[in-house]
């Protein structure tokens, strides 16, 4: 998702300074997580071949499941950003997240049940 290489002396507190044998060689400035979310959303639009807001409900739920698995909702304003991209309310995104969590829980429960047979 990109990053910027810098001289070690140009590093800011949030940058990562790479050292070798105690000597600072270079610094890496990572993109802000919110920029990464925008990048992920753009990639999903390319994958679906249309704006996310034009997807049907099931496809939007699939997008939310994918984003949830990637930690997109841990980003500040992540739900709002995704809701805007999907053309839905924050409430709807939360409903999609809850639905995905319920589906995962049901799948785990069915995997844990002992098989019947004789």
TrEMBL record:
Name all Transcriptional regulator DauR-like HTH domain ranges: 37-98
Instruction: State the source organism's domain of life.
Output: Bacteria
InterPro entries per UniProt: DauR-like, DauR-like_HTH
What is this protein's record name?
A: Transcriptional regulator
Q: Which organism is it from?
A: Streptomyces corynorhini
């Amino acid at each position: 998702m990109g990053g910027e290489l810098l001289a070690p002396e140009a590093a800011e507190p949030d940058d990562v300074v790479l050292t070798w044998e105690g000597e600072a060689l270079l610094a890496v400035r990572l993109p802000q997580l919110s920029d990464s979310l925008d990048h992920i959303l753009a990639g999903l639009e390319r994958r679906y071949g249309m704006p996310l807001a034009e997807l049907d409900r099931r496809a939007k739920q699939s997008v939310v499941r994918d984003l949830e698995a990637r930690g997109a909702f841990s980003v500040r304003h992540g739900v709002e950003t995704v809701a805007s991209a999907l053309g839905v309310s924050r409430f709807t995104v939360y409903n999609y997240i809850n639905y995905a969590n319920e589906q995962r829980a049901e799948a785990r429960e069915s995997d844990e049940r002992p098989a019947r047979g004789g």
